[in-house]
Design a protein that fits this description.
five-stranded parallel beta sheet, globular, 2 domains, alpha/beta, 281 residues, 11 helices, Rossmann fold, three-stranded antiparallel beta sheet, binds S-adenosylmethionine, single chain
Length: 281
Protein backbone atom coordinates (compact mmCIF):
# COMPACT_ATOMS: atom_id res chain seq x y z
CA UNK A 1 0.00 0.00 0.00
CA UNK A 2 1.19 3.52 -0.82
CA UNK A 3 0.71 4.79 2.72
CA UNK A 4 3.02 2.06 4.10
CA UNK A 5 5.73 2.87 1.57
CA UNK A 6 5.50 6.60 2.38
CA UNK A 7 5.65 5.86 6.13
CA UNK A 8 8.73 3.66 5.65
CA UNK A 9 10.40 6.40 3.62
CA UNK A 10 9.68 9.10 6.26
CA UNK A 11 10.98 6.85 9.02
CA UNK A 12 14.17 6.31 7.06
CA UNK A 13 14.70 9.91 5.95
CA UNK A 14 13.37 11.92 8.90
CA UNK A 15 13.17 9.42 11.76
CA UNK A 16 9.44 10.11 12.10
CA UNK A 17 7.39 7.05 12.97
CA UNK A 18 3.81 7.43 11.79
CA UNK A 19 2.85 3.79 12.32
CA UNK A 20 0.72 4.62 15.36
CA UNK A 21 -1.25 7.38 13.61
CA UNK A 22 -4.82 6.83 12.45
CA UNK A 23 -4.52 5.14 9.08
CA UNK A 24 -7.65 6.74 7.63
CA UNK A 25 -6.28 10.19 8.51
CA UNK A 26 -2.90 9.41 6.89
CA UNK A 27 -4.63 8.14 3.75
CA UNK A 28 -6.81 11.26 3.51
CA UNK A 29 -3.88 13.64 3.95
CA UNK A 30 -1.76 11.72 1.43
CA UNK A 31 -4.60 11.83 -1.11
CA UNK A 32 -4.97 15.58 -0.56
CA UNK A 33 -1.23 16.10 -1.00
CA UNK A 34 -1.20 14.06 -4.22
CA UNK A 35 -4.23 15.98 -5.52
CA UNK A 36 -2.43 19.27 -4.78
CA UNK A 37 0.48 18.01 -6.89
CA UNK A 38 -1.85 16.75 -9.64
CA UNK A 39 -0.58 13.18 -9.12
CA UNK A 40 -3.00 10.25 -9.11
CA UNK A 41 -0.63 7.33 -9.69
CA UNK A 42 0.94 5.94 -6.46
CA UNK A 43 4.20 5.05 -8.27
CA UNK A 44 4.47 8.59 -9.63
CA UNK A 45 4.17 9.93 -6.08
CA UNK A 46 6.85 7.52 -4.83
CA UNK A 47 9.12 8.71 -7.68
CA UNK A 48 8.50 12.28 -6.60
CA UNK A 49 9.37 11.37 -3.02
CA UNK A 50 12.57 9.65 -4.18
CA UNK A 51 13.70 12.56 -6.35
CA UNK A 52 12.65 15.55 -4.21
CA UNK A 53 13.85 15.64 -0.57
CA UNK A 54 11.69 18.75 0.07
CA UNK A 55 8.60 16.62 -0.58
CA UNK A 56 9.43 14.68 2.61
CA UNK A 57 8.99 17.89 4.59
CA UNK A 58 5.87 18.88 2.67
CA UNK A 59 4.10 15.59 3.30
CA UNK A 60 5.01 15.84 7.01
CA UNK A 61 3.53 19.35 7.04
CA UNK A 62 0.44 18.08 5.22
CA UNK A 63 -0.02 15.38 7.86
CA UNK A 64 0.49 17.72 10.81
CA UNK A 65 -2.37 20.07 9.99
CA UNK A 66 -2.03 22.74 12.65
CA UNK A 67 -5.28 24.61 12.94
CA UNK A 68 -5.24 26.67 16.12
CA UNK A 69 -5.97 30.13 17.52
CA UNK A 70 -5.46 32.31 20.58
CA UNK A 71 -7.83 31.31 23.41
CA UNK A 72 -9.30 28.55 21.25
CA UNK A 73 -12.52 27.38 22.91
CA UNK A 74 -12.90 30.32 25.33
CA UNK A 75 -14.76 28.40 28.05
CA UNK A 76 -11.64 26.27 28.58
CA UNK A 77 -9.55 29.41 29.12
CA UNK A 78 -12.07 30.75 31.60
CA UNK A 79 -11.88 27.49 33.58
CA UNK A 80 -8.12 27.49 33.28
CA UNK A 81 -7.92 31.01 34.73
CA UNK A 82 -10.52 30.68 37.49
CA UNK A 83 -10.34 27.02 38.53
CA UNK A 84 -6.78 26.03 37.70
CA UNK A 85 -4.27 28.91 37.61
CA UNK A 86 -5.70 31.15 40.35
CA UNK A 87 -5.98 28.29 42.91
CA UNK A 88 -2.58 26.98 41.80
CA UNK A 89 -1.02 30.39 42.48
CA UNK A 90 -2.73 30.59 45.90
CA UNK A 91 -1.49 27.11 46.83
CA UNK A 92 2.04 27.91 45.71
CA UNK A 93 2.06 31.13 47.70
CA UNK A 94 0.82 29.26 50.78
CA UNK A 95 3.72 26.82 50.32
CA UNK A 96 6.14 29.75 49.77
CA UNK A 97 6.81 28.72 46.19
CA UNK A 98 6.86 31.06 43.23
CA UNK A 99 7.50 28.82 40.27
CA UNK A 100 5.06 27.51 37.65
CA UNK A 101 5.97 25.07 34.91
CA UNK A 102 3.79 24.59 31.85
CA UNK A 103 4.14 22.40 28.74
CA UNK A 104 2.12 23.01 25.61
CA UNK A 105 2.60 19.68 23.78
CA UNK A 106 1.65 19.90 20.11
CA UNK A 107 1.68 23.70 20.27
CA UNK A 108 1.41 24.24 16.49
CA UNK A 109 2.21 27.91 15.73
CA UNK A 110 2.33 28.91 19.40
CA UNK A 111 -1.08 30.49 20.04
CA UNK A 112 -1.92 28.08 22.88
CA UNK A 113 1.38 28.61 24.72
CA UNK A 114 1.21 32.38 24.28
CA UNK A 115 -2.40 32.33 25.54
CA UNK A 116 -1.14 30.71 28.77
CA UNK A 117 1.59 33.36 29.02
CA UNK A 118 -0.98 36.15 28.57
CA UNK A 119 -3.30 34.57 31.13
CA UNK A 120 -0.50 34.31 33.72
CA UNK A 121 0.50 37.87 32.98
CA UNK A 122 -3.10 39.00 33.47
CA UNK A 123 -3.40 37.16 36.80
CA UNK A 124 -0.02 38.00 38.30
CA UNK A 125 0.30 41.57 37.01
CA UNK A 126 2.76 43.52 39.18
CA UNK A 127 3.75 40.30 40.99
CA UNK A 128 4.95 38.70 37.78
CA UNK A 129 8.61 39.62 38.19
CA UNK A 130 8.79 37.83 41.53
CA UNK A 131 7.71 34.53 39.89
CA UNK A 132 9.69 32.03 37.83
CA UNK A 133 7.42 31.08 34.94
CA UNK A 134 8.62 28.34 32.60
CA UNK A 135 6.39 27.78 29.59
CA UNK A 136 7.72 25.12 27.21
CA UNK A 137 6.03 24.56 23.88
CA UNK A 138 6.85 21.74 21.49
CA UNK A 139 5.69 20.46 18.13
CA UNK A 140 6.73 18.06 15.39
CA UNK A 141 6.35 20.64 12.63
CA UNK A 142 9.38 22.86 11.94
CA UNK A 143 7.23 25.22 9.89
CA UNK A 144 4.72 25.70 12.71
CA UNK A 145 7.58 26.38 15.14
CA UNK A 146 9.05 28.99 12.80
CA UNK A 147 5.71 30.82 12.82
CA UNK A 148 5.59 30.46 16.60
CA UNK A 149 8.94 32.14 17.12
CA UNK A 150 8.06 34.92 14.66
CA UNK A 151 4.80 35.46 16.59
CA UNK A 152 3.01 37.39 13.85
CA UNK A 153 -0.55 36.26 13.24
CA UNK A 154 -3.45 36.96 10.89
CA UNK A 155 -6.74 38.39 12.17
CA UNK A 156 -8.60 35.05 12.13
CA UNK A 157 -6.33 33.65 14.87
CA UNK A 158 -7.60 36.41 17.17
CA UNK A 159 -11.33 35.69 16.97
CA UNK A 160 -11.57 34.66 20.64
CA UNK A 161 -9.24 37.36 21.95
CA UNK A 162 -10.75 40.26 23.91
CA UNK A 163 -10.13 43.77 22.69
CA UNK A 164 -8.31 44.75 25.89
CA UNK A 165 -5.92 41.82 25.44
CA UNK A 166 -5.32 42.72 21.80
CA UNK A 167 -4.44 46.28 22.75
CA UNK A 168 -2.13 45.32 25.57
CA UNK A 169 -0.26 42.37 24.11
CA UNK A 170 -0.15 42.96 20.34
CA UNK A 171 0.85 45.62 17.86
CA UNK A 172 -0.91 45.69 14.49
CA UNK A 173 1.18 46.05 11.36
CA UNK A 174 -0.27 45.73 7.87
CA UNK A 175 -3.32 43.92 9.21
CA UNK A 176 -1.16 41.37 11.07
CA UNK A 177 -0.99 40.99 14.85
CA UNK A 178 2.51 40.96 16.28
CA UNK A 179 2.92 39.73 19.82
CA UNK A 180 4.87 42.15 22.01
CA UNK A 181 8.40 40.98 22.94
CA UNK A 182 7.74 40.72 26.69
CA UNK A 183 5.18 37.91 26.04
CA UNK A 184 7.32 36.26 23.37
CA UNK A 185 10.13 35.99 25.88
CA UNK A 186 7.87 34.04 28.27
CA UNK A 187 7.68 30.95 26.02
CA UNK A 188 10.45 28.55 25.04
CA UNK A 189 9.80 26.63 21.77
CA UNK A 190 11.51 23.47 20.61
CA UNK A 191 10.91 20.56 18.27
CA UNK A 192 9.82 17.39 20.01
CA UNK A 193 8.14 14.25 18.77
CA UNK A 194 5.53 13.22 21.33
CA UNK A 195 5.70 9.63 20.12
CA UNK A 196 9.40 9.35 21.03
CA UNK A 197 10.36 7.50 24.17
CA UNK A 198 11.89 10.68 25.67
CA UNK A 199 9.89 11.64 28.75
CA UNK A 200 9.57 15.41 28.33
CA UNK A 201 10.98 18.09 26.03
CA UNK A 202 14.78 17.88 26.24
CA UNK A 203 15.11 21.62 26.88
CA UNK A 204 12.80 21.57 29.89
CA UNK A 205 15.68 20.52 32.20
CA UNK A 206 13.40 19.02 34.87
CA UNK A 207 10.71 16.86 33.39
CA UNK A 208 7.72 17.71 35.56
CA UNK A 209 5.03 20.29 35.04
CA UNK A 210 2.21 21.91 36.98
CA UNK A 211 0.12 22.14 33.82
CA UNK A 212 0.32 20.23 30.56
CA UNK A 213 -1.85 21.16 27.59
CA UNK A 214 -2.11 18.60 24.81
CA UNK A 215 -5.19 19.66 22.92
CA UNK A 216 -6.28 18.31 19.56
CA UNK A 217 -3.17 16.19 19.12
CA UNK A 218 -4.21 12.74 20.38
CA UNK A 219 -6.90 12.71 17.67
CA UNK A 220 -4.10 12.07 15.17
CA UNK A 221 -3.20 8.80 16.86
CA UNK A 222 -4.72 5.32 16.86
CA UNK A 223 -5.75 3.99 20.29
CA UNK A 224 -2.50 2.22 21.36
CA UNK A 225 -0.41 5.30 20.59
CA UNK A 226 -2.97 7.57 22.28
CA UNK A 227 -2.59 5.51 25.44
CA UNK A 228 1.20 5.52 25.28
CA UNK A 229 1.37 9.30 24.78
CA UNK A 230 -1.25 9.95 27.47
CA UNK A 231 0.76 7.80 29.85
CA UNK A 232 3.90 9.80 29.07
CA UNK A 233 2.04 13.09 29.58
CA UNK A 234 0.58 12.11 32.93
CA UNK A 235 3.99 10.95 34.14
CA UNK A 236 5.36 14.42 33.36
CA UNK A 237 2.86 16.14 35.68
CA UNK A 238 3.51 16.87 39.35
CA UNK A 239 1.07 15.49 41.90
CA UNK A 240 -1.92 17.80 41.98
CA UNK A 241 -1.04 19.16 38.51
CA UNK A 242 -3.37 19.39 35.53
CA UNK A 243 -3.67 17.95 32.06
CA UNK A 244 -5.86 19.71 29.51
CA UNK A 245 -6.99 17.74 26.46
CA UNK A 246 -9.04 18.73 23.42
CA UNK A 247 -12.79 18.48 23.54
CA UNK A 248 -13.03 15.61 21.07
CA UNK A 249 -10.45 13.54 22.87
CA UNK A 250 -11.87 10.61 24.70
CA UNK A 251 -12.67 10.52 28.37
CA UNK A 252 -12.44 6.74 28.47
CA UNK A 253 -8.67 6.99 27.94
CA UNK A 254 -8.45 8.80 31.26
CA UNK A 255 -10.48 6.23 33.16
CA UNK A 256 -7.93 3.57 32.15
CA UNK A 257 -5.23 5.54 33.92
CA UNK A 258 -6.77 5.21 37.35
CA UNK A 259 -6.00 1.50 37.58
CA UNK A 260 -2.71 1.55 35.77
CA UNK A 261 0.59 1.14 37.70
CA UNK A 262 3.19 3.90 37.32
CA UNK A 263 6.75 3.33 36.13
CA UNK A 264 8.68 1.09 38.48
CA UNK A 265 5.49 -0.82 39.23
CA UNK A 266 4.24 1.48 42.00
CA UNK A 267 0.50 1.69 42.10
CA UNK A 268 -1.05 5.11 41.54
CA UNK A 269 -1.01 6.46 45.08
CA UNK A 270 -3.41 9.38 44.79
CA UNK A 271 -6.91 8.71 46.13
CA UNK A 272 -8.24 9.34 42.67
CA UNK A 273 -5.88 9.97 39.79
CA UNK A 274 -8.68 11.60 37.84
CA UNK A 275 -8.77 14.44 40.36
CA UNK A 276 -5.46 15.55 38.88
CA UNK A 277 -6.59 15.37 35.31
CA UNK A 278 -8.72 18.11 33.88
CA UNK A 279 -10.65 17.15 30.78
CA UNK A 280 -11.43 20.05 28.48
CA UNK A 281 -15.20 20.65 28.30
C1 LIG B 1 -4.48 20.77 15.54
S1 LIG B 1 -2.91 21.24 16.13
C2 LIG B 1 -3.27 21.61 17.83
C3 LIG B 1 -2.72 22.93 18.25
C4 LIG B 1 -3.13 23.38 19.64
N1 LIG B 1 -2.73 22.40 20.64
C5 LIG B 1 -4.61 23.64 19.72
O1 LIG B 1 -5.36 22.81 20.22
O2 LIG B 1 -5.05 24.68 19.25
C6 LIG B 1 -2.08 19.65 16.29
C7 LIG B 1 -0.57 19.77 16.35
O3 LIG B 1 -0.04 18.51 16.76
C8 LIG B 1 1.22 18.38 16.13
N2 LIG B 1 1.66 16.98 16.15
C9 LIG B 1 1.19 15.92 15.43
N3 LIG B 1 1.91 14.82 15.71
C10 LIG B 1 2.84 15.19 16.64
C11 LIG B 1 3.88 14.50 17.31
N4 LIG B 1 4.11 13.20 17.09
N5 LIG B 1 4.64 15.20 18.18
C12 LIG B 1 4.44 16.51 18.42
N6 LIG B 1 3.46 17.22 17.80
C13 LIG B 1 2.68 16.56 16.91
C14 LIG B 1 0.98 18.91 14.73
O4 LIG B 1 2.20 19.27 14.09
C15 LIG B 1 0.05 20.10 15.00
O5 LIG B 1 0.78 21.30 15.09
Amino acid sequence: MLVDRVMAELLRSRGIDLSGYRRSMLERRLEARMAALGISDPDAYLDRLASDPAEHDRIIEAISINVTSFFRNPVVWEILAQSVLRPMIEEKLAARQREIRVWSAGCASGEEAYSVAILLHEILRSELSSWKLHIFATDLSEEALRTATQAVYPRERMENTRLGILDQYFTVKNGLYELRPFVRRMVWFSRDDLTSSRAAPAESVYGTFDLVLCRNVLIYFARPLQERVLDKLTRSIVQGGYLVLGESEVLELLSNLVDRPRSGGDPVDEPNALEHVHQEL
